[in-house]
Amino acid sequence: MGEKKFAIIGCQHNHIEIFIEQMYQLGYSCAGIFEEHDRTLAAVIAEKYEIPLVENKLSLLGETIEIVGCASMNHEKIDVIELCEQYGKSIMVDKPAVVNQDGLARLEVIIERNRIKVGMLLTERFHPAIYTLKQYINQGKLGELVHIGMRKPHKLNASSRPAWFFNKEQCGGILIDLLIHDYDLLRWFTGKEIKSSAGLVGKSVLPEHPTFYNTVNVQVELDDGLLTQLYADWHTPSKSWTWGDGRIFVTGTKGFAELRLSGDPLLGSSTPIMLYASEEEEWSKVDLIQPHATITADFLSFIKGEASLLTHEELIKASRAVLDADAAVLYKLIPSSKESEPHV
Amino acid sequence: MGEKKFAIIGCQHNHIEIFIEQMYQLGYSCAGIFEEHDRTLAAVIAEKYEIPLVENKLSLLGETIEIVGCASMNHEKIDVIELCEQYGKSIMVDKPAVVNQDGLARLEVIIERNRIKVGMLLTERFHPAIYTLKQYINQGKLGELVHIGMRKPHKLNASSRPAWFFNKEQCGGILIDLLIHDYDLLRWFTGKEIKSSAGLVGKSVLPEHPTFYNTVNVQVELDDGLLTQLYADWHTPSKSWTWGDGRIFVTGTKGFAELRLSGDPLLGSSTPIMLYASEEEEWSKVDLIQPHATITADFLSFIKGEASLLTHEELIKASRAVLDADAAVLYKLIPSSKESEPHV
């Protein structure tokens, strides 16, 4: 055939559609979707994209397959990565790639051997408002950065979530699952490494899911002493226009920027917005700069050894940062008079 | 004459105009302004309101004076409070009332004796958007609160600031000076007491003012374990429409609110805005509820023994909270490889 093919092994989150659609844009076709557990989502996606659902994952690791996409349950992604390494297939996983130190150690072995390339859907670097902010920072339009604050509220839609989502061991929990983007962005925006994190993962809802925590609140110190604030929750009201009114506030000595990642319907837009003011420019929306490529195209460049925005270093450092943070913060029932360990 | 009179002892910050104007609205006239140190601002305000500048502060403590207003240098306000107690005059001070534990102890003695009433310009409780949010919380429109985040950026306008502003010992510094509002609001919104604070006060600018720090970043834990995030800086760009684009984000189990305290010029308004979404209501601006009285009228009610929003308890607890927080956080030069103590 000569047609470029990819496959999906693990289909538990519709984030995988990002990868599928971007691979299609790049001229690839999908050989099949394999899902070991609940196939509800896999069936929906298979039908939507007219992709075969296959019974045997090994059938998706043959010679014609160039690359694998994976949105398995978070704790099983590392198994799929190892499987792909056995068959010499580079793999793009949804975030987070790993949910515990054991998974990270296994991932580091694979990265070290470098037989395959592993990508992760750190999609926020390719978000037009975030990408634009990064260009502004690079151009010195914010001066020296003095603070970064990020808010990442999300809709829970509990009834539509699979059981594993509510299980800390399988999902990784709110900090690992959501803030992996933020830890990556902190490194990217500042060019500094993460030094330490302190904060709290709080549980005040859904006692029927004892290891599901609904808020996270972290102060993250960077290598130069800069302290930043991260926050995420599963409390976006169902009537909100967006799954999550994400915001990023970056303060520098020469300018200030606010990103409204899902836009602002009161400004007539639910598309991303970057607002900026400086010593020279009044507070206004700025024209967004589109990233040079999709995250999938960027990963293919990385596989080919060409310049890419994301590399193995970003994958490992973001993963390590969230795991270290998750170990450093307190897990607490609220209201509570005592601390509780997550049931991991 | 029978005319109701007040006086100003200490005029180092134009916040005192809030008190002057509200006293005028209440039918009082001002007997005079006394300022011991630099009288630049005192002269401007005296001329603007046609108030005599007096040479002897004791002339403003006679029988005809019902109440004193004070915006002295922050570390000297407690001296004026003690002076007023000697003369049996209740006093409204700009915030912060005290800047160190010694000042707080002296204030507590006066509060305990209760010969006079002491008020403090915790004006944010009377801000229409903040007041409205409090009513929404009271009415259960946010459900149980799961997070509060507050941002308090400010313009520095360094050339217009008096020397004492840049001196930690005299001013109290960014945490005490600015976050006293936030600590008060945390107590007010939640009905909980402050348990602990952790964070950083950072210095990355103005080496010529060695004890001036420009950012503060704190996680504040309330008695029930709720963790909240506070941030303030002196980095609002000069081209911003406002002296400070203050924001308050409150997330509850039933609703979410964002306050844009200086409005949003892109929404056509530089007046305060409260945005709200819930399980029933889409994201929209809500009608603001005006507070029942000005902070000055509220203080006069308190003096008369009538119901008031602010009492001595709020004054002491907000003051103690910021002093405790200031002692708990790290002071750090950024970029820095080591911690530095503020030169206090």
Automatic annotation (TrEMBL), chains A, B:
Pfam families: GFO_IDH_MocA, GFO_IDH_MocA_C3
Name assigned to this protein: Oxidoreductase
Coiled coil: none
Lineage of producing organism: Bacteria, Bacillati, Bacillota, Bacilli, Bacillales
Database matches in Gene3D superfamilies: Dihydrodipicolinate Reductase, domain 2, NAD(P)-binding Rossmann-like Domain
GO function term, MF aspect, one: oxidoreductase activity
Keywords for the protein's UniProt record, in alphabetical order: Oxidoreductase
Species for this entry: Paenibacillus agaridevorans
Residue stretches making up the Gfo/Idh/MocA-like oxidoreductase N-terminal domain: 5-113
UniProt domain GFO/IDH/MocA-like oxidoreductase: residue ranges: 132-257
InterPro entries in alphabetical order: Gfo/Idh/MocA-like_OxRdtase_N, Gfo/Idh/MocA_oxidrdct_glycsds, GFO_IDH_MocA-like_dom, NAD(P)-bd_dom_sf
